[in-house]
Amino acid sequence: MPAYYKLGGTIFSSMAINQYVYVASNIRFFNKILIRYSKNELVDSVNGVEHPIIRKTLEKYLPNCSDLELTTIADVPSGTGLGSSGSFGVALQIVLRVLTEKNISKQILAEESTQIEMVELGRPIGLQDQYIASYGGLTEFTVNEEGKVTVDRKNILQDARDLIANNLILIYVGSIRDSGILLAKQQKDMIEAKSSNDRVFDDIVKMGRDTMSYLVNGDLKSYAGLMHEYWLIKRERQKDQTPKSIDDLYNYLFQKNLIYGGKLVGAGGGGFLLIATNDRPSILNFLKSKKLKHLDFLLDEEGAKLLSK
User: Fold this and answer.
1) For helices 158-167 and 200-216, what crossing angle results, to 10°?
2) CATH code for residues 158-295
3) Residues 125, 174, 301, 148: what is their CA dihedral angle, to the nearest 10 degrees?
4) Which residue in 143, 165, 233, 283 has a CA-CA distance of 20 to 30 Å to 58?
């Protein structure tokens, strides 16, 4: 987040998974803009578009269009901590940049989608969702004080692939939330932490680097142990926003030795709980008995791409 990296840079790591946001475009016969996502919009001009990311991106690339159709389909709902907003922004960049015959390099897709959501819309977000959606893979990103990002794609060993496929599960815990509220508070906390020389966020950055190292090398117990340590910190910071039901679920799984560790993904407050387990059958039976939905996933190594013209 800018409140952190502007004071000395930072480093973060992300993993892209094979759950996607699709954006398709078409030139309509009639002169009205038709947009389909969780709701439908039929408007006369770009200024009339309600969806903020779509409106801002259209203003940049096709400000005078009047016959465009955009349709969005997502594998998982928004507000669940899996970066759907950032992924959508990147996918929309591809569509509109192709329509206007502009470069769709991964760097440009990440930079432009971040510029629109973070700067032009003023949302209290970080860089991570847009960059990992664009680049894909298991990737480490270094950010300088000006927000310039250097990308380091990791070599994926078979042990890491096995860990991801066999030992990691996303459990849907509900409570779809507005991440902006949680992230605005985190921005404030970061500024206050820096002014008081509180090193908690510096320690979290180090934990992130160590976590990536363990994941890349397929070290399940060490990886999960750091996730558990981080979850305890995150839960304490967000004790007013994390539902008791999530705490109870996590504590039960941990105390029963069904998981080595886990954490809520995204800003927190709800969405998906990522767990690391060495007893997948027991976890799946438990989830079925409690009627809890889960998400199996694999690593996505391609990142954002154009499917067809």
Assistant:
1) 110
2) 3.30.70.890
3) 10
4) 143
